[in-house]
């Protein structure tokens, strides 16, 4: 079949089959490679629906047909590549519909960095942004249940998605949000495609309720899907399908609109930076630091530090001359610090507060607590960066080092863990396996062990 010719009859957006573009879209940030037949840039939900209907109608005759939705392609597990149709949302479907201090409704293709500018005008942020915040789209963040430096305090993106519009495998768009028992009963009695999904999902989750709840990983950051344990809560009577779609990596349907909850941007933040001689006693040091309830706790190692030094000119390109010169000047004291020996690990402990004074107090309290145990944890030195301006340099190094590594080292890639999705759910929502078909499913609850392992 001439896929481009067929799609052009039903698609208002752009379609591209040039070798150069298909080559570009054959990669995300993983080591996998799958070359699409055609890349589409949808202009509207109608475009998305038309493609889904087309693929559904022709899947039996052409089993290789499938759809992979894509934001900015920074996925590290092969989630944003496919062999048939890739739909890139970041060209046209990137409108911010509305934003208030409490919430924002946005199309999936908007870049987080642009979204952030708009929410900050309201004094608010979406705090689950990943380290790839300058590259990622909000749709990719939702589909990957992304989390990052603020997730210790706020959790991941699933905590902030209050409503989704999704195109499901029947080609219709549905709004999903948390609903109560009464609303659930009404949905289940609809007797249509949507009603059947609600009824069968509920049956599955309620019949295996205890087993599913027991399988919930006890970790602070788990971005894997499907988070079945968060969908149905017998105690509150709330049934929330957004929890299934956030983190599903586009395997169950295509997100066309997202309503996010926002939190007030904290006015002040600051860091205590610890330079460690080695990482032997991290097991004891980490709980000690956590007692002080930091907002953020991140690290980078000596190799990352060397990398940042070696590729320092790359920061010029990324930051522009003014911020780059500022970075160099602020790094001078740290250069002197290196004369005392290269730290094995640098820990960044961030505190937030309503006033600069409150932040300073928190930073000082941890500093004081650890100072007495400096020898025990082999802490080479401390740096108090008790204001945002002073701590910025560390965040620049932390956030951008991996991106520099990716752009400079071409022959090495991080090895991803293999995702496995719960087969019963995948089959229910996507019976013909049209969405991201190369993502693996698993039939039994061995899945949960794999799932827990991945969470680490
Ligand atoms: C340097 C670097 C640092 C990173 N740091 C972090 C980090 O700190 N934390 C973290 O969680 N991740 C991190 N990541 C992974 C990745 O950047 C994030 O998950 C990011 O949110 C993905 O956004 P994206 O727009 O690139 O999505 P893409 O890669 O384009 O897509 C991600 C997944 O979402 C699906 N998808 C995209 N749009 C839709 C849609 N409209 N409907 C349904 N499914 C859709 C895709 O099919 C794919 O499975 C990092 C990656 C890199 C390269």
What does this structure look like?
With 456 residues, the protein is of the alpha+beta class. It folds into 3 domains: 3-88, Uridine Diphospho-n-acetylenolpyruvylglucosamine Reductase, domain 2; 96-263, Uridine Diphospho-n-acetylenolpyruvylglucosamine Reductase, domain 3, CATH 3.30.465.10; 268-408, Alpha-Beta Plaits (2-Layer Sandwich). Helix content is 39%, strand content 20%. It has 18 helices and 20 strands. The chain has helices at 3-8, 19-24, 45-58, 112-121, 138-143, 151-154, 181-188, 193-207, 209-214, 242-245, 282-290, 302-310, 312-319, 321-338, 356-371, 388-408, 423-429, 446-455; strands at residues 14-16, 38-41, 67-70, 85-88, 96-99, 103-106, 124-125, 161-167, 173-176, 178-179, 232-233, 238-240, 254-261, 263-264, 268-276, 296-301, 345-353, 379-385, 420-422, 440-442. Strand 8 and strand 9 form a beta hairpin. The radius of gyration is 23 Å and the shape is globular. It starts with a helix and ends with a helix. It binds flavin-adenine dinucleotide.
Rg is 23 Å
Largest sheet: 5 strands, antiparallel
- Share of residues in strands: 15-25%
Query: End-to-end span in angstroms?
Result: 44 Å
- Number of β-strand runs: 20
- Domain module count: 3
Keywords:
alpha+beta; Uridine Diphospho-n-acetylenolpyruvylglucosamine Reductase, domain 2; Uridine Diphospho-n-acetylenolpyruvylglucosamine Reductase, domain 3; Alpha-Beta Plaits; 3 domains; four-stranded mixed sheet; 20% strand; disordered C terminus; binds flavin-adenine dinucleotide
């Amino acid at each position: 079949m001439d896929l481009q010719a067929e799609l052009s009859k039903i698609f208002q957006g752009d379609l591209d089959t040039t070798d150069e573009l298909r080559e570009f879209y054959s990669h995300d940030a993983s080591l996998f490679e799958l070359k699409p037949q055609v890349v589409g840039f949808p202009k509207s939900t109608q475009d998305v629906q038309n493609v889904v209907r087309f693929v559904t109608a022709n899947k039996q005759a052409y089993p290789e047909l499938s759809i992979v939705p894509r934001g900015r392609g920074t996925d590290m597990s092969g989630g944003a590549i496919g062999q048939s149709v890739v739909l890139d949302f970041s060209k046209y479907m990137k409108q911010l519909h509305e934003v208030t201090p409490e919430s924002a409704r946005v199309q999936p293709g908007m870049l987080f960095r642009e979204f952030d500018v708009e929410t900050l005008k309201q004094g608010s942020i979406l705090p689950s942004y990943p380290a790839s915040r300058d590259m990622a789209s909000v749709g990719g963040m939702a589909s990957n249940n992304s989390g990052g430096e603020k997730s210790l305090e706020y959790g991941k993106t699933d905590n902030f998605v209050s409503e989704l519009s999704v195109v499901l495998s029947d080609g219709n768009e549905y709004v999903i949000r948390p609903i109560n028992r009464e609303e659930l009963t009404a949905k289940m009695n609809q007797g249509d495609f949507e009603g059947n999904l609600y009824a069968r999902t509920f049956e599955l989750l309620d019949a295996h309720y205890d087993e599913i709840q027991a399988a919930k990983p006890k970790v602070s950051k788990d971005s894997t899907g499907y988070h079945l344990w968060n969908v149905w809560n017998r105690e509150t009577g709330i049934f929330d399908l957004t929890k299934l779609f956030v983190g599903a990596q586009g395997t169950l349907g295509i997100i066309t609109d997202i309503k996010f909850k926002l939190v007030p941007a904290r006015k002040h933040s600051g860091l205590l930076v610890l330079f460690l001689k080695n990482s032997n006693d991290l097991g004891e040091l980490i709980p000690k630091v956590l007692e002080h309830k930091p907002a953020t706790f991140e690290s980078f190692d000596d190799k990352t530090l060397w990398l940042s030094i070696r590729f320092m000119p790359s920061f010029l390109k990324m930051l522009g001359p003014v911020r780059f010169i500022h970075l160099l000047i602020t790094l001078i004291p740290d250069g002197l610090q290196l004369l005392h020996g290269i730290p094995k690990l640098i820990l960044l402990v961030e505190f937030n507060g309503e006033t600069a004074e409150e932040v300073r107090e928190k930073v000082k309290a941890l500093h004081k607590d650890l100072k007495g145990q400096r020898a025990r944890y082999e802490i080479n030195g401390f740096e108090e960066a008790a204001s945002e301006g002073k701590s910025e340099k560390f965040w620049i190094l932390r956030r951008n080092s991996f991106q520099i590594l990716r752009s400079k080292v071409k022959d090495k890639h991080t090895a991803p863990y293999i995702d496995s999705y719960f087969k019963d759910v995948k089959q229910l929502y996507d019976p013909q396996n049209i969405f991201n078909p190369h993502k693996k499913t698993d039939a039994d609850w061995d899945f949960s062990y794999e799932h827990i392992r991945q969470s680490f």
